[in-house]
Amino acid sequence: MNFSEDIQVRVVESDEGEALMQFLLEHYYREEPLTAGCSPPEPEQADKDFLLSNIPHGTCLVVVQGGSRIVGALVAGPKDAHEAEHLAEEVVEHSGTKWGRILGLLARVERETNVCKRYGVPSTIHVHALGIDPRLRGLGLGARLMSAVAERARALGHPLVTVDCTSLYSAGLMARLGYELINTIRYDEYLDEFGQQVFRPPAPHDSVKTYVLRL
Ligand SMILES: CC(C)(COP(=O)(O)OP(=O)(O)OC[C@H]1O[C@@H](n2cnc3c(N)ncnc32)[C@H](O)[C@@H]1OP(=O)(O)O)[C@@H](O)C(=O)NCCC(=O)NCCS
């Protein structure tokens, strides 16, 4: 059996939360630039709970090798024109925590991009997380997950797929897939009230870039 015959992309089932989270802890969170770029290094429970809360939407996907081993994952869910207000409330609720700092940056991204208003659409499928097992990077698996989520979004009647790329690698992937770049916030320009840089991800990650695909 060759590599591509051994690989399957499918929707995450409702009872697969634990397996999905185990994969994300191993191959997504450790490197994801916002998680890695502010202390403590581990994601908070509220962050993990938020990602898992997307499973019922049917827009979370895994790449499975050999029938059962998860080697890639994508977490996505719908958002609408009220996302900026929703995120502003979440920032207040989680203020003073690592998840609150992450939400603070995502809320600023949402204010600056306002994708539903900008594109005149009621909703979008937003990609919250994307991770590939490091042993299988550079083989097009991230691209396969992105095209599968676009198919799911289309089937569910959403006119856009959006993603805030915190990593240089995910941004490069979206650019190659023809997504439109609509906003960039540099980490060294995103400061707290004391003028201190909030996220200090390792090189080569320098910014969060928002990309959009019209379906
Ligand atoms: C983003 C991610 C899913 C991309 O993986 P992918 O789809 O396999 O990557 P691509 O096919 O676009 O890779 C293009 C090239 O970059 C390399 N590359 C991709 N991610 C890399 C990484 N994290 N570190 C070093 N090199 C990486 C690939 O090996 C490939 O190299 P090649 O051209 O020499 O073969 C992957 O980097 C990842 O899982 N990162 C950790 C979690 C994360 O930060 N997610 C994004 C947050 S928005």
TrEMBL record:
Pathway: Aromatic compound metabolism; melatonin biosynthesis; melatonin from serotonin: step 1/2
Pfam families to which the protein is assigned, alphabetical: Acetyltransf_1 (PF00583)
Enzyme class: transferase
Domain of life: Eukaryota
Alphabetical keyword list: Acyltransferase, Transferase
Reaction catalyzed: serotonin + (9Z)-octadecenoyl-CoA = N-(9Z-octadecenoyl)-serotonin + CoA + H(+); serotonin + hexadecanoyl-CoA = N-hexadecanoyl-serotonin + CoA + H(+); dopamine + hexadecanoyl-CoA = N-hexadecanoyl-dopamine + CoA + H(+); dopamine + acetyl-CoA = N-acetyldopamine + CoA + H(+)
Gene Ontology molecular-function annotations: aralkylamine N-acetyltransferase activity
Record flagged with keyword Transferase: yes
Record has Ribonucleoprotein as a keyword: no
PROSITE patterns: GNAT (PS51186)
Domain N-acetyltransferase: 7-204
EC number(s) reported in the record: 2.3.1.87
PANTHER family: AT07410P-RELATED (PTHR20905:SF1), N-ACETYLTRANSFERASE-RELATED (PTHR20905)
Family: Belongs to the acetyltransferase family. AANAT subfamily.
Name the record gives this protein: aralkylamine N-acetyltransferase
Organism, scientific name: Drosophila persimilis (Fruit fly)
Name of the coding gene: Dper\GL15167
